Amino acid sequence: MELKNLFKLTAISTALATTLGLAGCGGDININTGGDEVTSPSTPPTETPTQTPQEKAYSGFATKSTTFAAVDGKEVWQLSGTLTPSTAASTMSTGGQNGNEIVLGNDVVWLLDGAVIAGGDNENSVELSILPGTKILGGSDSYLVISRGSTIMAEGEMEAPIVFTSAETALGQEGKAGQWGGLVLLGNAPVNTCPDLANCDASFEVGNYNYGGDDTTDSSGVLKYVRVEFGGFKINDTQEMNGISFAGVGSGTEVDHIQVHLNNDDGVEFWGGNVSISNVVLTENFDDSLDWTNGWQGSAQHVYIRQADNGSNRGIEADSNSDAAASPMSKPLLSNVTIQVANGANSGGDDAEGILFRKGTGVIAYNLLVKGDVDSGECLEVNDDNTVNNANSADLVVENSLIDCVEPFKNAKPDDAEGRTLSLDVEAWFKGQQGNLVAASDLNGYMPNSSSVALTAGKADLANMDDRLVDAQYVGAFDGKNDWTKGWTTAIHDDVDTAPAELPTLTSCPVGTTSEDVVAGLYKDDSVTLVCSLQGNLLNNTTLLAGQNVMYKVDGGAVVVGGDNENSATLAIQAGTKLFATDNSYIVISRGSKIMAQGSADYPIEMTSEQDVIAGAQGERGQWGGLVVLGNGLTNTCPDKNACDASFEVGDFPYGGNDNTDSSGQVSYVVVKYAGFKVNDTQEMNGISFAAVGSGTQVDHIQVHANGDDGVEFWGGAVNLKYVYLTDNFDDSLDWTNGWQGKAQFVYITHEDGNANRGIEGDSHKGTNDTPVSKPKLANFTILPGADIENASGDKGEGILLRVATAAELYNVLVQGRKGETSTTESGECLELDGSYAGLVDNVNDGLLTMSHSVIDCNEPFKYSSDNAATTDAINVETWFMGQEGNATTAVTLTDGMPATSDAALIGTGKDLSADDSFFESTTFIGAFDGENDWRQGWAYFPQ
User: Which residues form the signal peptide (predicted)?
Assistant: First the structure.
């Protein structure tokens, strides 16, 4: 193609006028408008001392782009035309060419110019290798074809997938379906449109490339950890590109861990052949996610299909040939497929549906799970006479499968106009086969809950039945524990690109932020040359890109992500990003929206005050607000959970609902410092507030330091936490109320003397009929309360207070108070139960408030309090504590929270919760640390 077709003059002018304001991507992107057409040299240029390693390696078969100077900090090299063997000397380094072997290195980014074809048709064959972590861009009419006789060796890795994407995304524009073509593999395997397989030249629907033959074991290479996104350009009403097309591809081809995302036609389509695929993710594709025809006899196992509301047609569309005598018949082997059927119809007028078997296809299928919604179309349909005949024989079989849909089945019926004479009661056919169920699937997203029938209803002994399968005795693509989509897919986990080995230098602010002038010497970090501000209501997805020279300014009060369960948006924050906020500012994630703050141990995300980053100023408590996450989970302040609009204590933002599995995104490796400004005597901001946030939210490796109120607080919900470091917070370090039912493991709490209250303050409700009751499950806490001196609010340093009718399970907790003889040298009470509300006393007596395998090491270990005469002296806290398994009051020695590995009181005395609850990691120690591994290292802030 001519690159001017992709980058029109007006678009380039706009981009230049806004100083590349389109660049919402990692790294620099530079555009050169000169040289619309580039001609590849026929032979490698003469090597000169000035040649770069890339020029030495790639000049023989590619040209350096004159449109993109750099993407992701790498040169861009352009492929065009047909790639053929070379007789020149090898140019191999990171990549290069040696004879018929061409290697696309990951030291550059590759750009496809028009149709790029590997090899000739069973002649001039090449092996096109693509290294892990390589990115390939496609322009508006570009695609990659692997000819018959040639191979592609695209072997990515989980942490370094190979990504085919659109050129628009490299400009920071939004990725959309149809921005480029896709990947086409052509093989020599049988296809039933060829009567003579030995002389087969079936024509591919785009470009008229030949495919097909008589070699069922033919190999077109390897696709592993490969992602194809935003493809599927349209040629006309009948010709569109699929994400990955397999045309006559043989069983010698290896395909596993592939994703096709947001394609404008089908996700994956097969025309005959015998290729097998596994661990496949097909998301938001426009037409059919998995489509086969013309005699495909391969297999597919562990396939996850998620459709887009008002944007997709079928999960599976399965054909063979209108001629029943055409051979071979399509008859693939399917197992462990999950299809989440969307609502509505796509723009082509096609309803979102589950599976359609038609045109004489056969299939042997096990462990299929189809989940429909209220406005989904039919989830299982059989159509036409030839397919009905197969259903009535052994050629079309579905066993040990689960249909969970409002409209589960559509029958085959006679239709004179269509030439159909046979009928089939699809529900009776489905239910009449072994192990099939029509029932609730009980999923958390796409993962079955522990109570789901899908975990136990699958077909056993699959590997012995067919060596193309592995044993997976569960229905659907997932076993409830292992998520094989993590680490390499997109749009499944709202993933943000992980930070590179070195953060890039950014030249412009991402879309959704505004660039501010940077005055020399203003910031403590003199490498900061770019400050990007966030203000107001963010109604579009916004990604904060990490850079070694950039900080983000939260300004103007509340920065609110999304509307309340409408206009939902995601605030994505890359690893290594630094944010600071002005005095009255804070971040709010609305119900239905998400934060994807995905830091890492090497590159944590930091949120702090403006004073902490300004030269000559100092970070202190209460200098900004904090992070507020609002969810649709349960809170006991709402009698009607289906119409819940509880009001958050600052800003009156609504929260609450009926979904304790709701997801508000992810907060990982995030440090929040100097937040918690005070509105009035009853309204103060916490470091991180979780208001009815559901268990679908991931929270791990977080720190809140020197907050003006609580460190972390929960109002209902069921969000879980792991690896939490709470330091020098003014009021309570961990606070819950209103029905929190989440879990937490590995929490380390330290106090500053005279500037703290409690390590834990746990509440539930005051009304006798308020539900749910707070009942978190906590394990492996170390709490070091401050001295028993009043803070500015009159509160003294204490350990744990459980009150206001809360229930809870506490395991492996260590509370070690300051030791001394006066209030200035020792902590206050380390474990207190407040029975002012009878519900707490009832919870103790009913075994709903428990604490085991824990150690209290304090001068004032226990206290019971009550301002209710009816419950005075109702509980003896020491008796309650010592009467439970594994508890002790004994002195221990810690060094910065860490026990010695030989500490007999803490090491080997804890309770292992992992066997009964998969959230908890296996431990046999008391406290947050095992004496060897300090999980704070590398990412946490250590107060001086």
Answer: 1-17
